[in-house]
Write a structure and sequence with these properties.
Blueprint lengths: L8 H16 L7 H21 L3 H27 L5 H21 L4
Helix pairs in contact: 1-2, 1-4, 2-3, 3-4
């Protein structure tokens, strides 16, 4: 059953990013870098879910944590590219999705 969480653009983009990351890394050898990238992407979703049920400054703080994890995803993509685990269109698409994810989270992370 879907709830208000599934109506958030940030959550939908985060889900899409995680799915596309998993697809892009399906044949990548297991490594700490691959695990870290997947963990950071999943953490974005978990932090958005936690923020969704809170209010005020705590809500903004949790969205900030999600934004921090999304920024970590950028570094993970860079590392995976430098180490030859990701390249081409899949990498470009992941960068684009992650940019959208961060742009969506940024205003949500500000205290009101």
């Amino acid at each position: 059953m879907r709830n208000s969480l599934h109506k958030l653009d940030a959550y939908a983009i985060g889900r899409q990013f995680l799915v596309e990351l998993d697809k892009a890394l399906v044949n990548a050898p297991r490594s700490r870098d691959v695990t870290q990238a997947k963990d950071a992407a999943a953490s974005v979703l978990r932090n958005i879910a936690e923020a969704n049920v809170t209010t005020g400054a705590d809500r903004a703080r949790r969205f900030q944590l999600a934004l921090n994890e999304a920024s970590e995803c950028t570094a993970c993509l860079d590392i995976l590219e430098l180490r030859g685990a990701l390249a081409g269109e899949s990498l470009s698409g992941l960068y684009e999705l992650n940019d959208r994810q961060r742009a969506t989270l940024r205003p949500m992370s500000r205290k009101r």
